[in-house]
Amino acid sequence: MFQVFLVTPFFITLHPNVNKRLRKLHVYPNTFSMSRIVVNFMHGRGLIFNAEDYLKLRFEYRIVGNLIGVPVSHPRNVNQQGMPVALSAYEVKLLLGKQIITLVDKTGALQRVPSEEQSQQYGAMVEQQKQEMHMPVVEKRLEAFRKHMPRIIEGKRRKLLKSGVKEEDIHLDPEQLLDQEKERIMQERFDQMVQIPLKYPLPLEFSECSIALSAQEDVKYRVFESLWQQGGFITTGDAFGCDFLLYPGDPMCFHASHTVHVLAGGVSRKLDAKYLIRICRLSVVVNKLCVIAYVDESSDEVHFETLEWEGNVTNKGDTF
């Protein structure tokens, strides 16, 4: 049995709407905001906690990332992910090179024991939250007290008369009664819920940092950058046994069209026939085109080759 590989030039065909949007962004570069997006470097990866920042990166710069959190609206749904977004090392380095983001490291500041002043500030914030939750309850009780003020005054007057106080000595001021009721209610204890902040609530010191890649990762970054400059949407290809997945449009609307395998050794690397068969058959199973990417040492340029599986061409006419 023979296997035939057709090696063809590699090119990206984007969806018409994507092409239109990219052309618009190319003609009007000033539509991008001049302020950089803050990306937090934690546990060896870049994290974005702001949804607006993530949407800007996705729709304006074609950076997909990976949602790793739990959606607030469906906290028990294991099939949906929410904020934060984890960016790969290649996405972070690309955005840093384009001066789109600022990579900051807050790990040391977050792990540091809070100072006495910070503890007092947080305590004051908690007390303010308690007061804000307590005041609506107080106002509701006072509103009911005002509604029944005539009956309350009449009841107190009768009680004073029964105790032996003369009618002309009874003076009940509604405002004074309201102040006394408010003071009494303020001293009562109510059930309260203390909000747990999802973001560090106090000013935090941090330092800018950069990201370093190994020699093999640097080759993959060169490929990632070249694909991104051609207008594609790129994600990691771990689930499909490749280095990158290439999409003709946003992955929310399109399936991946190419599986990209990066050759770390460049043109000097010897390709095993079993390796070629494996990656090509894999691309056929997932209904995608197989692309081999490498960096030519002589020209220092990134090259792409598309492999197409044609099957047993020689024995197509055989009958058994």
Portion in strands: 15-25%
Report the biggest beta sheet as strand number plus sense, adding barrel if it closes. 6 strands, mixed
- Strand order of the biggest β-sheet: 1-12-11-10-9-8
**Number of discrete helical segments:** 9
- The arrangement of helices and strands along the chain is EHEEHEEHEHHHHEHEEEHEE
Unreliable spans: 1-7, 14-34, 315-320
Question: What is the structure about, briefly put?
Answer:
This protein is of the alpha+beta class and 320 residues long.
Secondary-structure blueprint of this entry?
Layout: E1 5-9, H1 16-27, E2 37-42, E3 45-48, H2 51-61, E4 66-69, E5 82-87, H3 89-97, E6 101-105, H4 107-111, H5 116-147, H6 149-162, H7 174-187, E7 207-208, H8 215-229, E8 233-236, E9 244-247, E10 258-263, H9 273-285, E11 289-296, E12 301-309
Parallel strand pairs: 2-6, 10-11
Antiparallel strand pairs: 1-12, 2-3, 3-5, 4-5, 6-7, 8-9, 9-10, 11-12
Helix pairs in contact: 3-8, 5-7
Kindly describe this structure.
The protein is of the alpha+beta class. The protein has nine helices and twelve strands. The strands form two sheets. A six-stranded mixed sheet has the order 1-12-11-10-9-8. Strands 4-5-3-2-6-7 form a six-stranded mixed sheet. β11 (289-296) and β12 (301-309) form a beta hairpin. α5 crosses α7 (174-187).
